[in-house]
Design a protein that fits this description.
The protein starts with a helix and ends in a 5-residue tail after the last helix. It has 18 helices and 14 strands. Helix content is about 45%, strand content about 15%. It is an alpha/beta fold. It has helices spanning about 5-10, 20, 30-45, 65-75, 85-90, 100-120, 125-135, 160-175, 195-200, 215-230, 245-250, 285-305, 315-325, 340-350, 360-375, 380-385, 395-400, 430-440; strands at about 15-20, 55, 75-80, 120-125, 135-140, 155-160, 180-185, 210-215, 235-240, 255-260, 260-270, 275, 415-420, 420-425. Strands 7-6-8-9 form a four-stranded parallel beta sheet, sandwiched between helices. A two-stranded parallel sheet has the order 1-2. The mean pLDDT is about 95. The chain folds into three domains: about 5-125, P-loop containing nucleotide triphosphate hydrolases (Rossmann fold); about 135-285, Rossmann fold; about 330-440, Dehydroquinate synthase-like, alpha domain, CATH 1.20.1090. Nicotinamide-adenine-dinucleotide binds near residues 221 and 245.
């Protein structure tokens, strides 16, 4: 009671069934047993539905049958909030079990071990609930527990840099579950048909096997696509090791490889069974790679409406993207907002033939342009990301921007930040877009 379950559940924007809305509180007058019996029946019928969030009354787990049902059919997220905070929220309400602080505290202490017993995940806030719903674990030291998150036999796929630094720890953590350790080339080279062909041929897993992808976004994109296609699809568990991958690439189930004609042109949506984010792994990340990731952190913070003086951390970035992707897994609607600044970025990268300008630099420039077109101040983005105009051919960049797949019927469409938050598919006059693009180009 008062932990904030309903608020956290509703914040995800997916269907929520609230047991307390259905079980009549008046039943309490006939005694708690009658109420709990009715509640257990409601829980059972609600759990028969797929892909919903069940917002369970705080005392439901005192019924053994409910605990059994939860173990069997649900992922249980325990929103762990201290007793005084809960009391502050419920005191003075008409809830029958929240009329007196001492009784309330006794109840809290009685129930606590039961919560501990049924919980699959312990959450502090709505961000943790989003992560739990998406199967994402964010925890310093999680790599050491990797074996706990993988079912059955697995193959570990990494790139030579990451394998050299963190491969041994991953192998030790996977222990007897590890059938083979394989490598993809470092960087975009991993996302080629040649690299993928080799990986497909080396894999020895059967359909019950799991592919564990340890590395940056190139490794998780390519290995995830291998998992989506090998034997028509096997389970996979990304363990992202770069900032780009922890806050973006490994979240949301998009996997892909590149074609000579463009990046990410062949791929699949393939949601991982678990995603293991260990922020401690970032300690070995080179500074230039950290800067690449900062562009995505700033993008996510802008979308979330956060103050850029205090940008989101890895956990909240991952949770923000996860919640959007849970609501729009196939990129049909609100997921498009994640492209903030990216239309400009892709145009600049294409004009540079993907050489001499990194994705992070291009996104930093793109964010500046998107903010300007949104009528927002750009000074903090400039201070944090230091976007420097790039020397590319203006006409090539303009031609690439007009080819962007988000444009419709010749009209340019962008993601912008409106008064009420992000807006996507916003038509913007070509002249304004061209001016904003030109300002990102030097010479
Ligand atoms: N699927 C998606 O939704 C999505 C989203 C964003 C980006 N991406 C893709 O991600 C890719 C870029 O990802 P990236 O920037 O992580 O590139 P990357 O995988 O090439 O990693 C960058 C470099 O850092 C090294 N590295 C990674 N982790 C390290 C660590 N902990 N310590 C030391 N070195 C480490 C890697 O070996 C590599 O050399 C692009 O191909 C992009 O298209 C995909």
């Amino acid at each position: 009671m008062g932990a904030g379950k309903t608020t956290a559940a509703r914040s995800l924007g997916v269907p929520v069934l609230v047991t307390d809305d259905v079980v009549p509180i008046e039943l309490f007058e006939q005694g708690e047993a009658a109420f709990r019996e009715a509640e257990a029946r409601v829980v059972e019928s609600m759990l028969a539905q797929d892909a919903v969030i069940l917002d369970l009354g705080g005392g439901a787990i005192t019924t053994p049958r409910v605990r059994e049902l939860l173990k069997e059919k649900a992922t249980v997220v325990w929103l762990d909030v201290d007793v005084d905070t809960c009391w502050e929220r419920v005191k003075g309400s008409d809830r029958p079990l929240a009329q007196n602080y001492d009784d309330f505290k006794r109840l809290y202490e009685e129930r606590r071990p039961l919560y501990e017993q049924v919980a699959d995940v312990k959450a502090r806030d709505a961000h943790d609930v989003a992560l739990a719903a998406a199967g994402i674990v964010v925890e310093a030291g999680a790599l050491q527990r990797l074996g706990d998150f993988v079912q059955g036999e697995c193959a570990l796929v990494s790139d030579p840099n990451v394998a050299g630094i963190h491969g041994m720890d991953a192998q030790l953590a996977l222990g007897a579950k590890l059938r083979q350790s394989l490598e993809l080339p470092a960087g975009e080279e991993a996302k080629t048909l040649t690299a993928l062909d080799r990986l497909w041929q080396e894999l020895r897993l059967d359909r019950s096997g799991t592919l564990v992808a340890l590395g940056g976004g190139c490794t998780t994109d390519a290995a995830g696509f291998a998992a989506a296609t090998y034997l028509r699809g096997i389970d996979w568990v990304p363990v992202p090791t770069s900032l780009v991958a922890q806050v973006d690439a490994a979240i949301g189930g998009k996997t892909a490889i590149d074609l000579p004609q463009g990046k990410n042109l062949v791929g699949a949506f393939h949601w991982p069974t678990r995603t293991i984010v260990d922020p401690a792994l970032l300690q070995t990340l080179p500074e230039r790679e950290r800067r690449e990731g900062m562009a995505e952190v700033v993008k996510t913070s802008l979308l979330a409406g956060e103050n850029l003086h205090d940008p989101l951390d890895v956990r909240r970035c991952a949770a923000f993207k996860a919640a959007i992707c849970l609501r729009d897994p196939h990129d049909q609607g609100e997921r498009k907002q994640l492209n903030l600044g990216h239309t400009f970025a892709h145009a600049l990268e294409a004009a540079a033939a993907y050489e001499g300008v990194t994705h992070g630099q291009a996104v930093a420039l793109g964010l500046k342009a998107a903010l300007k077109l949104s009528g927002r101040d750009t000074s903090l983005v400039e201070e944090i990301l230091e976007p420097k105009p790039v020397r590319v051919d203006r006409e090539r960049a303009w031609a690439a921007l007009q080819r962007d797949k988000k444009n419709l019927g010749g009209e340019l469409r962008l993601v912008l930040l409106g008064g009420d938050g992000p807006e996507w598919d916003v038509p913007v006059p070509a002249g304004d877009v061209r001016t904003a693009l030109d300002e990102l180009i030097s010479g």
